[in-house]
Amino acid sequence: MLGSGLIQGLAVTAKNFVKSFHDPARLVTVEYPEQKTKLPENYRNFPFLVYDGDQAIDGLRCVACKICEAECPPQCIYIIPDRDEKGRPTKKPKVFDLDISVCMSCQICVEVCPFDAIKMDQHFEIATAERFNALLLHREDLAKSDAYFHTLHPTEAAQVDAVLAEAKRRTEAKARPAAPAAVPATPTAPAAPAAKPPEPPPPAV
Amino acid sequence: MGPHHPSTHGVFRMMVTLDGETVVKLKPVFGYLHRNHEKIGENTTYLASMPYTDRLDYFCSMTNNWAYALAVEQLAGLPVPERAEYLRVILAELTRLLNHTCLAGFLLQDTGASGTPLMYAFREREKILDLFESLSGSRMMCNYQRFGGCRIDATPEWLAAARQLVNGYNAFLDEYEELITGNEILMARTQNVGVLSPALAVNAGITGPMLRASGVDYDLRKVDGYGYYPRFEFRIPLGDHGDTYDRYMVRMLEMRESIGILRQALDRIPEGPVMDPKAKIRGFKPKPGEHYGRIEGPKGEIGFYLISDGTANPYRYRVRPPSLINLTILEDLCLGHTLADAVIILGSIDIVLGEVDR
Question: Between A3, A12, A104, which is nearest B51 by CB?
Fold first, then answer.
């Protein structure tokens, strides 16, 4: 019969219309910004730098090795390594700039970082009236504490702590034969690693 | 028509010559969204091209990732763990569900059924995107596959959520088909509109559901048997007339088969690592050589042709985009039909301009 398909379709629409007011699974509207949905743990937005201890700049895990700068697909990271007065590298970034108007949140900097120094943030309310300097983040803006990282990504943070504790144990084991009088290394608590970043892996010969 | 939104598909322009309301000549103009994808790929490392592949066809970032990862893995001879292969099949079939659901919604939008079918499609798409977000961290730009496996393992809760979605999907498809498949207006607008003959389809290099709607049995999942697809039981739906209605119907039937594959994969997924332990993240340099890796994406054959000269960057990086090649026959399909039909035909080709222009 002509029109039966139409009536069938309208019946489906009517059923959905009624259900969308009663079925709890269909009441999905969230009144942002008063209400917020819980973000999944893996959610990623823009990178930040992790620091240990309570000194934001001195405690940065970053050693300015420039691997993330080289691997970043849209080239949004800019690093100048710091040097002491004699001109030796201090394994700290003097400048660490990240242009989040260029960043594409791909997480490759996190994956290539050998020191677990850069991680993904979940802060997405970044609207600003100024589109140049306000979106160019410096190391002071990027530095966030290790505890903050633990609240964002607890699973990943536990893995990172295990890796860092293992690296620390290995460097201490290496240092012990040279100084036999030193106090035996105590296993460090994962929640409070020392401010010193682990030694970089030896360069391949 | 165009250059902005001739229907709802992005920045694309059609130069149409009309006789009354009948199309007598049609010239597609594209390139408005060109982003230098291939040249960027030659100037960055192999890994750094992976997030750019998300931006090709932004509906199907998981299959784009897989196609690129497969091409590099075959080029470098990397093994992939069993669990990662299963996860890839699950994600690819979820992408197929997402893409075909949205296509049906957009096609109905093009016929003038504004709102309802598209909103139903987006409601289901949202559930799949939530799954992608909780697994990969991003809804559309997933950047999930890696050379030699996947980036993050799926938790048991994620697999349970995926199973719940798959179990509910047949009911949604039943409802959706009740809503539109038997609709007289859809039939009148799409049947015998834009008929694509099998000979033209093969000669023009058309792939994917569009080719199968013309009755040519060619699906890379069966032909190449890449990944673990030979381990799953599924059928390839074929069309008979090659018209717009067949192209719609083949996709609806393909979704039912995808649900079958998903059920089998979710039941059988083994435990184990998702990343090959020898795979390198930093300093990846494949041996000199060349390779073309391809998979059956939701829109057709998506392939990556790579030439390696032994350095960290590919010497040549070429994408075979299904959308672009399926679009080349637009004029042949539209000739003799009305202007309003040209919009539906464009909708049934299933293009994403990010992939056409690259």
Answer: A104
Residue B259: its pLDDT value, please?
92
Measured between CB atoms, does A154 come within 8 Å of chain B? no
For B220-275, write each residue's pLDDT tens digit: 888 888 888 888 888 889 888 888 889 889 999 999 999 999 999 988 888 888 88
Mean of pLDDT values over B174-197: 82
- Enumerate long-range contacts of A36-43, CB under 8 Å, 24 or more apart: A39/A122, A40/B133, A40/B134, A40/B137, A41/A152, A41/A153, A41/A154, A41/A155, A41/A156, A41/B134, A42/A153, A42/B133, A42/B134, A42/B135, A42/B136, A42/B137, A42/B152, A43/A122, A43/B133, A43/B134, A43/B137, A43/B138
* CATH number assigned to the domain comprising residue A107: 3.30.70.3270
**Which B-chain residues 213-272 have CB contacts (< 8 A) with chain A?**
none
Give residue B169's domain range.
13-357
With an 8 Å Cβ cutoff, are A9 and B120 in contact?
no
Interchain contact A3–B (C-beta under 8 A): yes
pLDDT at A182 over 60: no
B8 located within any domain: no
**Model confidence pLDDT, tens digit, residues A21-35:** 887 777 778 888 888
- What is the DSSP pairing of strand A47-51 with strand A118-120? antiparallel
pLDDT computed for residue B95 by the predictor:
92
Residue B316 lies inside a defined structural domain of this protein? yes
- The answer to whether A71 faces chain B, any CB pair under 8 Å, is yes
CB contact under 8 A, B137 and A71: no
Residue A10 structure tokens: 């309208």
Instruction: State the residue range of the domain holding A75.
Output: 47-145
Number of domains comprising chain B = 1
Report the distance separating Cα B78 and Cα A51, nearest Å. 36
Q: What CATH number has the domain bearing residue B244?
A: 1.10.645.10
